[in-house]
C-alpha cells in the first residue's frame, strides 16, 4: 500500500530559512548563501520522507516566498513596474514582487483560502506576455533525483492559478481571467515536457479552487484545460489534488471526468461528505489519494478510525489504487515534535507535527497492507483515551458560563452614533484622527531581554524596567510625531495570540512549533487543548503604565476571540464556536478591567475574522453569526464613552461588510493600501457605514516609505466615499516587523498628510 505527502513545511525545524532570507534581504549574505541553506533543507526533507517509506514524495513545494509567486515567476507574468525584460527570473525581481523595493510597491498579498498562510496575488491582463521564465520545478526534480530520491513535481494547477489572480490595474473589471488559459497552458506544456524529459513519472497539479462554489463556465474551464494538456501529459501519471473542504458534487463530476488524469486527491478530514461521493461513484482504474491525516492541525491521528475509513475505500477503488495521504500540505502545521523538550508529556502524547504525520501516513499504509505496527497502534489508542478522560480538558464553570450566553445577542445598549458623540466629548479628537495599529518595531535588544526573562536570566524587576523604558520611548516618539491616539508599542509581546494564550487556562505552548505565515514571517500558534478561562488580568498593568506617561488617549490592545481561535491549533473534540465563546468571555473580563483601570480606548483585534469564513457559501451565515456574536460579547458591558476599536488585515472584506457593520465596533481599522483600495469600492456602491473607519493609508509589509503626497492622495480617495467625521488615518497593520529607520519617516509623512488634508478641508468651508 502506497503513501503520499501533499507538501511539507519549508522553514526548517529551527526556522533556518527565515534567518537565511532575512540575512539576504539585509545584505548580510549572498544569493549563493541563501540557495545553500535552501538546498540543505530540501535534501533533509526528501531524505526524511524517503526513510519513512513514503512512495510519493513531493518536490517544488519549497518556495522562497510562496508557491503562487513561484508560479507567476514560472509563467513570466511579472507586472511591468518591476522592470523585467525577459530571461530566467532572478531573486531581485522575485523579491521585488513580494516585498516591493525603494521605488515601487509590492504586489497584493492575501490569505490562502481559509488559512493563516498568505500568497502574492498575480496581476494579469490581456497584455501579459507569458513565457517560461523560471525552471525551478525541473531543477528541484533533478536535484532530488541526483540525491537518489524520486519525487512527484508539484505545480499550482493552471485553472486555480487564474482563478486566484486579479485583473491588473487599468484592466477592465469585466476582463475574464480565464480567457488567458490558452497562453498559460502553452507554458505549462513546456514545463511538463521538460519534467518528462528529466525522467518524472508522476506530476501533481494542485487545483484547490475545485472545493469552492464554482459557476458552470469555471468548471468547463477545467475540462477544456485538461483536454488541451492531454497529449502533453501522455506518458505521465497525473494527480489532481484538492484540499481544505468537501468538493461539491458538480465539481467532483468534472474532476473525475478530466482527460489525461490518473489520480484524484481529496481532503477527507475537512471534506467528510466527499466520502459519500467517492462511495457512490469512482471511476474504474483510477487512483484515490485519500487525505486521512490532518495537514491543518497538530492532533495525533485516530489510527483506528482512519484505518476503518481506508478499508471501506479499499472496497470501492481497489487495493492497488488506494494511496494514503495527508489532507493537504503539511506547510500549515509545525515541523517536528522532537524539538519540544519542555512540553508537558501528557499533552505531547496527544500531538503530531509534520514529521510525526509522515510516520502516521506510512503506518496507516503499512497497516492497510497487512503489516500493522501493533505497538504503535496501541500507543495511539492509549494517547487518545488519555485525552478523552483527562480532567485538565474540562472546566465545569466555564462550560456553564458559555451555555448561559444563549438567548442574548450581547449588543451595547446605545447606537454607535450616540456612542461616538459621548466619546468625542471625552477624547476631543481632531477630524481625521491619526493612530497606529498597535505594535512598534521589535529591536534585537528588546527580543533579547524578553528571551532572557523567559529563561529566568533577568529578574522581573529588571524586565519591567526595560519594558517601561521601551514604552516611554514609543510614547515619546508618538507625541513628537503628533499622533492623536497612542499605543504602548507592545514590547512585552512576541506574538499577539501567543501572549494572551500564555495567560489563559486551556492553552499549551510549544518551544519550536513555528508555522510560516508569509515570506520569512513565522507564527507559533498556541495549542487549545481544554476549556478556556482568564485566571487574572493580562494587559492592565502595561496599558495603565503607558497611559500614565501621556495626556493623550492610550489604546488598550487586545486580540479578539475569533482571531485567537483562528490563529491557534484548536481542540477538535468540540465545535469551534463553543471554544470561541469561552475565549470571548475571558476577553470580556479583560476589557472591563481595562476600563476600570482608566483606559478609554480599547482595541480588540479581529485580524483573522475573515480568514475563518468557510469556503462554501452555504456555511457562511452560521460562521459569521457566531464569530460576530463572539466579538460583541467581549465589549457589551462597557460605557458609551469607552471607545471600542477593532482591526482587520489582509483579506477580501467586501463580501462580509454587513457582518463587519454588525460587529458594532466604534472604530474599525482595516487593510486597504496593498489591495488597490478595493475596500473603498464597497462604499462607492452605496453601503452606508456610520462608525469610525480607518482604511490603511500605507503598506507596512514593505520597507518602502510612502511620501506625504502619496498618503494625502489616498486619504482624498477615502473622503470621496466616506464622511470626514468618521475617517481615521493609520497604517495597514502593526509595525513590529519594520525598522525604526522606516517607521519614523513613514509615520511623519502620514501625520503630515492628515494635517494637510485638515487644513484643506478647513479652507474649503
From TrEMBL:
Gene3D superfamilies the UniProt entry points to: 3.20.20.210
Boundaries of every Cobalamin-independent methionine synthase MetE N-terminal domain copy: 3-316
E.C. code: 2.1.1.14
Cofactor(s), names only, from the UniProt record: Zn(2+)
N-terminal signal peptide: none
EC top class named in words: transferase
Family annotation (InterPro entries): Cbl-indep_Met_Synth_N, Cobalamin-indep_Met_synthase, Met_Synth_C/arc, UROD/MetE-like_sf
Biological or metabolic pathway of the protein: Amino-acid biosynthesis; L-methionine biosynthesis via de novo pathway; L-methionine from L-homocysteine (MetE route): step 1/1
Domain Cobalamin-independent methionine synthase MetE C-terminal/archaeal: 432-755
Domain of life: Eukaryota
Catalytic activity: 5-methyltetrahydropteroyltri-L-glutamate + L-homocysteine = tetrahydropteroyltri-L-glutamate + L-methionine
Alphabetized UniProt keyword annotations: Amino-acid biosynthesis, Metal-binding, Methionine biosynthesis, Methyltransferase, Transferase, Zinc
Pfam families: Meth_synt_1 (PF08267), Meth_synt_2 (PF01717)
Function: Catalyzes the transfer of a methyl group from 5-methyltetrahydrofolate to homocysteine resulting in methionine formation.
Family: Belongs to the vitamin-B12 independent methionine synthase family.
PANTHER family noted in UniProt: 5-METHYLTETRAHYDROPTEROYLTRIGLUTAMATE--HOMOCYSTEINE METHYLTRANSFERASE
NCBIfam families documented for this protein: met_syn_B12ind, PRK05222.1
Protein name: 5-methyltetrahydropteroyltriglutamate--homocysteine S-methyltransferase
Organism of this sequence: Brassica napus
Amino acid at each position: 500500500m502506497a503513501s503520499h505527502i501533499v507538501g511539507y513545511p519549508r522553514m526548517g525545524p529551527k526556522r533556518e530559512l527565515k534567518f537565511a532570507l532575512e540575512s539576504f534581504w539585509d545584505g548580510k549574505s549572498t544569493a549563493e548563501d541563501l540557495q545553500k541553506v535552501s538546498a540543505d533543507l530540501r535534501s533533509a526533507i526528501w531524505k526524511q520522507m524517503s526513510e519513512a517509506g513514503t512512495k510519493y514524495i513531493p518536490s517544488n513545494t519549497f518556495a522562497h516566498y510562496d508557491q503562487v509567486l513561484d508560479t507567476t515567476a514560472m509563467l513570466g507574468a511579472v507586472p511591468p513596474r518591476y522592470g523585467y525584460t525577459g530571461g530566467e527570473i532572478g531573486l531581485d525581481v522575485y523579491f521585488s514582487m513580494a516585498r516591493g523595493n525603494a521605488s515601487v510597491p509590492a504586489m497584493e498579498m492575501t490569505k490562502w483560502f481559509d488559512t493563516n498562510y498568505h500568497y502574492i496575488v498575480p496581476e494579469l491582463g490581456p497584455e501579459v506576455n507569458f513565457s517560461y521564465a523560471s525552471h525551478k520545478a525541473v531543477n528541484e526534480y533533478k536535484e532530488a533525483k541526483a540525491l537518489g530520491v524520486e519525487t512527484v513535481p508539484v505545480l499550482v494547477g493552471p485553472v486555480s492559478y487564474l482563478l486566484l489572480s486579479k485583473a491588473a490595474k487599468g484592466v477592465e473589471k469585466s476582463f475574464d481571467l480565464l480567457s488567458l488559459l490558452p497562453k498559460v497552458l502553452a507554458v505549462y506544456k513546456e514545463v511538463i515536457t521538460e519534467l518528462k524529459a528529466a525522467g518524472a513519472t508522476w506530476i501533481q497539479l494542485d487545483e484547490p479552487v475545485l472545493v469552492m462554489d464554482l459557476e458552470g463556465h469555471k468548471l468547463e474551464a477545467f475540462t477544456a484545460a485538461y483536454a488541451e494538456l492531454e497529449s502533453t501529459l501522455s506518458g505521465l501519471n497525473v494527480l489532481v489534488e484538492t484540499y481544505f473542504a468537501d468538493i461539491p458534487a458538480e465539481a467532483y463530476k468534472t474532476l473525475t471526468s478530466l482527460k489525461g488524469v490518473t489520480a484524484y486527491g481529496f481532503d477527507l478530514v475537512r471534506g467528510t461528505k466527499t466520502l459519500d461521493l467517492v462511495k457512490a461513484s469512482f471511476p474504474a482504474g483510477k487512483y484515490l489519494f485519500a487525505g486521512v491525516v490532518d495537514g491543518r492541525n497538530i492532533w495525533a491521528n485516530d489510527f483506528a478510525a482512519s484505518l476503518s475509513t481506508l478499508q471501506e475505500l479499499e472496497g470501492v477503488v481497489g487495493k492497488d489504487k488506494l494511496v494514503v495521504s495527508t489532507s493537504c500540505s503539511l506547510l500549515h502545521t509545525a515541523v517536528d515534535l522532537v524539538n519540544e523538550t519542555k512540553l508537558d508529556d501528557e499533552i505531547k502524547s496527544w500531538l503530531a507535527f509534520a514529521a510525526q504525520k509522515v510516520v502516521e501516513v506510512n503506518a496507516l499504509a503499512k497497516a492497510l497492507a497487512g503489516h500493522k505496527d501493533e505497538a504503535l497502534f496501541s500507543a495511539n489508542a492509549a494517547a487518545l483515551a488519555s485525552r478523552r478522560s483527562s480532567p485538565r480538558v474540562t472546566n465545569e464553570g466555564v462550560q456553564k458560563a458559555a451555555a448561559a450566553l444563549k438567548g442574548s445577542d450581547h449588543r451595547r445598549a446605545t447606537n454607535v452614533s450616540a456612542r461616538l458623540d459621548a466619546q468625542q466629548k471625552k477624547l476631543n479628537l481632531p477630524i481625521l484622527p491619526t493612530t497606529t495599529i498597535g505594535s512598534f518595531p521589535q529591536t534585537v535588544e528588546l527580543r533579547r531581554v524578553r528571551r532572557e526573562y523567559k529563561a529566568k536570566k533577568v529578574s522581573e524587576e529588571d524586565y519591567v524596567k526595560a519594558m517601561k523604558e521601551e514604552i516611554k520611548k514609543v510614547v515619546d516618539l508618538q507625541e513628537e510625531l503628533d499622533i492623536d491616539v497612542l499605543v504602548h508599542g507592545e514590547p512585552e509581546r512576541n506574538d499577539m495570540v501567543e501572549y494572551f494564550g500564555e495567560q489563559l487556562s486551556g492553552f499549551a505552548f510549544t518551544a519550536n512549533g513555528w508555522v510560516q505565515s508569509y515570506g520569512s514571517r513565522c507564527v507559533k500558534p498556541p495549542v487549545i487543548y481544554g476549556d478556556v478561562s482568564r485566571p487574572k488580568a493580562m494587559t492592565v498593568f502595561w496599558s495603565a503604565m503607558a497611559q500614565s506617561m501621556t495626556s493623550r488617549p492610550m489604546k488598550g490592545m487586545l486580540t479578539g476571540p475569533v482571531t485567537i481561535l483562528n490563529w491557534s491549533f484548536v481542540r477538535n473534540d468540540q465545535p469551534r464556536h463553543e471554544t470561541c465563546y469561552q475565549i470571548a468571555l475571558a476577553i470580556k473580563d479583560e476589557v472591563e478591567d481595562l476600563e476600570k483601570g482608566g483606559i478609554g480606548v480599547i482595541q480588540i483585534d479581529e485580524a483573522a475574522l475573515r480568514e475563518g469564513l468557510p469556503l462554501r457559501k452555504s456555511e457562511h451565515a452560521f460562521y459569521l453569526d457566531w464569530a460576530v456574536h463572539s466579538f460583541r460579547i467581549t465589549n457589551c458591558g462597557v460605557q458609551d464613552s469607552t471607545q471600542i476599536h477593532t482591526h482587520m488585515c489582509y483579506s477580501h472584506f467586501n463580501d462580509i461588510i454587513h457582518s463587519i457593520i454588525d460587529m458594532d465596533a466604534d472604530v474599525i481599522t482595516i487593510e486597504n493600501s496593498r489591495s488597490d483600495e478595493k475596500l473603498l469600492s464597497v462604499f462607492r456602491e452605496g453601503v452606508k457605514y456610520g462608525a469610525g473607519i480607518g482604511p490603511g493609508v500605507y503598506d507596512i509589509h514593505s520597507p518602502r516609505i510612502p511620501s506625504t503626497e502619496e498618503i494625502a492622495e489616498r486619504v482624498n480617495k477615502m473622503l470621496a466615499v466616506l464622511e470626514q467625521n468618521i475617517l481615521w488615518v493609520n497604517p495597514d497593520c502593526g509595525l513590529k516587523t519594520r525598522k525604526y529607520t522606516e517607521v519614523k519617516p513613514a509615520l511623519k509623512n502620514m501625520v503630515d498628510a492628515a494635517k494637510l488634508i485638515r487644513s484643506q478641508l478647513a479652507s474649503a468651508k
